[in-house]
Write a structure and sequence with these properties.
two-stranded antiparallel sheet, 373 residues, 15 helices, 10 strands, 4-stranded parallel beta sheet, alpha/beta, 39% helix
């Protein structure tokens, strides 16, 4: 064996591994899917068949799911379904309240809206039945974060004539406040949509970053054009920003040329914690504080009510943190913690069952008799 051969021999395994890596990348990962899982780079940023079908519907101008496209909020209830009233409130069977009844307007996400149950089974409707002296409007919207709920209240405030405003808040949904593209946070989600978000300015004041999709056609364009998608979301959407190489257009990052690197990038991006971090905490606190000030300026009372998810032990610790308590966020609703982990109180999709909604209403109804604190 020559001297040159002795030097080159150790490089043979490296060369073989490199060839194998390139071969896997070119052939096994060519379509960006391995064993049914989408592999980075996520170009296009679609993670399952339901999202691909949703894109096809959007190209036809069809949103579905009881919602319609909204340039400001991302989506809103579709009154054409007949399920929502003039304010976008979810309609339940008429409960005749006396003319003297006060009005409670409840905003929030799917746990407020009452996903997986009928309109009259959602906890706001149950409270309405329990209290003849209150007219309760359910203004929850599925998949909303507290930022969208706040913006929706701003849109409706001059039409509400509310005596009290509640923000139904499930801490597990808190990370929505740092995203603008829904599937980046929840890869398994069945829909595709963009939304606005807030950021904190230098004086800790909320500054609005507008929804990057101003038309329904923009939704399809941004998903179809990875360069446009990346430009619109990097630095704005926390999940895109934390692992930007996973969302860059194919071939524009060195990691894209290696199967091992692509697999590692996919694993790292998926392992990124979706739980609340410092930015999420700060934004939720600022949203609640700002909404409180603005609601109280209208003469109404404001409360944040905790809506427990089955993962509540972690959420309760997050919610009870000193910095959250110092924001004057309502804690009376912690009575609802009894729901956590209780069998039969949640639907298969994770939302409250009819009995869970009933229990939530019973826990929250006494708040209507409370003082301003």
């Amino acid at each position: 064996v020559t001297r040159r051969a002795r030097y080159l021999l150790p490089l043979v395994p490296v060369a073989l591994l490199a060839v194998a890596d390139v071969s896997v990348n070119v052939f096994a990962l060519r379509d960006g899917v391995l064993l049914g899982r989408v592999i980075a780079p996520f170009d296009p940023p679609l993670f399952n068949d339901a999202q691909r079908e949703a894109l096809e519907r959007i190209r036809r101008g069809d949103v579905r799911g009881g919602v319609r496209f909204d340039a400001e909020l991302g989506w809103e209830p579709d009154p054409a379904t007949g399920a929502y009233g003039p304010l976008g409130e979810r309609l339940a069977p008429v409960d005749d309240d006396p003319p003297s009844a006060k009005r409670l307007a409840v905003f929030g996400g799917s746990f407020t809206h009452g996903d997986e149950v009928e309109a009259d089974e959602a906890w706001p409707a149950v409270i309405d039945r329990l209290r003849d002296d209150w007219d309760v409007l359910n203004l929850g919207v599925g998949a909303y974060g507290p930022d969208q709920a706040f913006l929706r209240w701003r849109r409706l405030r001059d039409r509400l004539d509310a005596d009290e405003v509640w923000l139904g808040f499930m801490p597990a949904a808190a990370p929505r406040v740092v995203t603008v593209y829904r599937p980046a946070l929840r890869h398994h989600d069945g829909s595709i949509s963009f939304k606005p978000r807030f950021v904190l300015g230098g004086d800790a004041a909320l500054e609005l970053v507008a929804n990057p999709a101003r038309t329904l056609a923009d939704v399809a364009r941004l998903v179809d054009d990875q360069r446009a998608f990346f430009a619109a979301t990097v630095g704005v959407d926390a999940w895109v920003t934390r692992w930007p190489a996973a969302y860059r257009p194919t071939g524009t990052h060195p990691a894209h040329w290696s199967a091992a690197a692509r697999l590692a990038l996919t694993k790292l991006e998926a392992a990124e914690p979706r739980a609340a971090d410092d930015e999420v905490r700060a934004l939720v606190r600022a949203i609640c504080e700002t909404m409180r000030r603005e609601v109280e300026a209208t003469g109404a009372r404001f409360r944040v009510v905790l809506l427990p998810h089955r993962s509540l032990p972690h959420e309760a610790a997050w919610w009870s943190a000193p910095e959250m308590k110092s924001a004057r966020i309502e804690t009376d609703a912690l009575a609802g913690l009894v729901l956590a982990g209780s069998r039969g109180l949640y639907r298969p999709g994770g939302h409250f069952s009819p009995s869970g909604n009933e229990g939530m209403a019973v826990a929250l109804e006494p708040l209507l008799d409370g003082d301003d604190g």
